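Suppose a colleague, Dr. K., hands you the sequence of a protein chain of 677 amino acids and asks what its three-dimensional shape might be. Before reaching for any lab equipment, you can write down a predicted structure in token form. Begin with the sequence itself:
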Amino acid sequence: MEIETILYIILAGILALLLALFQYVYKRKGRSRLNILFAFLRFTTIFSVLLLLINPKLEQLNLYVEKPNLIVAIDNSGSIAHLDQQENAGKVLKSISENEALNDKFNVETYSFGETFRASDTLTFSERQTNIDESFNKLNQIYKHSTAPTILITDGNQTYGNDYGFAASTYKQPIYPIILGDTITYSDLKIQQLNVNRYAYLKNSFPVEVILVYNGNTAVNSRLVITKGNTTVYSEPVSFTKNNNSKTINFTLPANTVGVSAYKATVVPINSEKNSINNNQNFAIEVIDQKTKVAIISDFLHPDLGALKKSIESNEQRSVSLLNSNIDINQINDFQLVILYQPNSKFKSVLEYLQQENKNRFVIVGAKTDLTFLNTSIKEYTHDIVNQTESYQAVLNPNYAPFIIDDINFESFPPLVSNYDPVIFSVPFESLLSKSVNSVAINEPLLATFETNGRREAVLFGENIWQWRAQSFINSKSFNGFDDFVGKLVQYLASNKRRTRLNIEYESFYNSGQNVIVKAQFFDKNYVFDTRESLNITVKDNVTGEEKTLPLILKNNNYEVDLNNLLPSEYSFTIRATNENISRSGTFRILEYNVERQFLNANVTKLQQIATNSGGQSYFIDNTEYIISDLLNDNRFSPVQKSNKNTIPLIDYKYLLFLISLSLALEWFLRKYNGLI
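The predicted structure, expressed as tokens, is then:
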């Protein structure tokens, strides 16, 4: 409390005492017990009121002991069951979480990880992927400002994600791996990796790359065999030694049949091989009979051109040619879609030919676009020319009807430079993205599509879309989101199919362990997204004949269903609307491949490395009794006494108001009782 406040309180006490004595002693000319009592009550009242006016602040100090956290993260993936370590993992988790001494010293928190990282001690050892990198990243966010030694119960085998050794190096907590799995090295021959394109073109050959790895000390001979059904389509002998322990085999296979073709790669097991599951790997390819060719026409260089080319060609079904306005008009017939980038008067012959042939097109308008030329050449929309530019951000239209579009966080993308002029459409159009200025949406399209006379067209009112692709990578560490967005737009524009009220989206084939998600959108008769409809999917296993019906769940701007529980097989499905006679059907295949069953040993070296680098220690499953004593005796993890100081103003204390009320009431009652009132 400040000295100035203390002086005010002393002066308040003196003033309250003088006033009380003046009223009940000096004026009454006597010092009877009753007057002294009245003076005391009046002093209490006046002093309390003055204290409230001064309102001094009182400090309250609370002491408490903060225990360090002990994180127990356990691997819940299928590789633990494959290595027959689920019982050991359960026992060590129970011994740690139920140890009284550890619970007295630490706040024990249990997490499990596999495909996802979650706070849970319920273990199934059935998750189909392992991402240890994500576990360290999440834990680093949660326990960034606290002491939290981490016990990692795992075999150290990661199936996807970034190298967890790097994530562990940025994790500022000691790591104590408990290593599950056999540490004995067995002779093993396996398919380490198989690389193949997702699509191939009819009557072409597609490349396949197979990487074989051998672990052993003796020379062995085997054979790589590729089969399609019961037919062998490729075979090659292979040999390995202790030093020459890997081979990369490249070959091509013919694409003779349209549709999904499934293959099986097998490296013949060697004698006494313990794990033969990793000797086989299924793969598939979708054969198509046509490649979509896209022309981008521009009279100047711009980063947008490269970004569009990369995004479109990320789908191998499409190829892009960069041309200028002097193109031979007859070449345009070779393309299914023409993109006109910031057209000017030199595009006159191109636009006239596109109009004459009624070909689909995509127009991108920017700061260098000749708007006067556009107004005279394109009749579907016109610009009010003001010769100014503005930067606009994008807002996704959730009711966009022509095709399913995912929100890839458009609002976080940099603004596009566009002409500051309103656009007037003379035909019905649908806004896929609308404009936003300073986070305020305005009722103007940024990206719009329309259909007229059997022709599809899109127009983007802005340049620098290359920055969107870069921002998409920053947001998700991948270009896939933006590339899929551009790919769906190109697919819509390059096709002349009529739009339907029920659109579905799915892949032709999935690898086992991959998310099997089927999406759908349903629209009312005005092609407005309808959230009131109930959609159901009936999935049939074409091999066993088994059928199951599931509802589609409304999620964001789509209906979707998760079919991850389906076993590898061939499936056909039908999605039906409950209230209307509308349905769509399709087929897909799930390939058998369990990445968690490819491992033979624990990754001892990597786990020991992260333990050493973090200041922790690694333990094998047979000597885990030492980890408890090591943690209890480690002085780095002692409880810390902390204090919490609160400053509370006196006016917050209700007891003082009660005291004022009590003293006034007693004074009034005693004076009334003694006939002084």
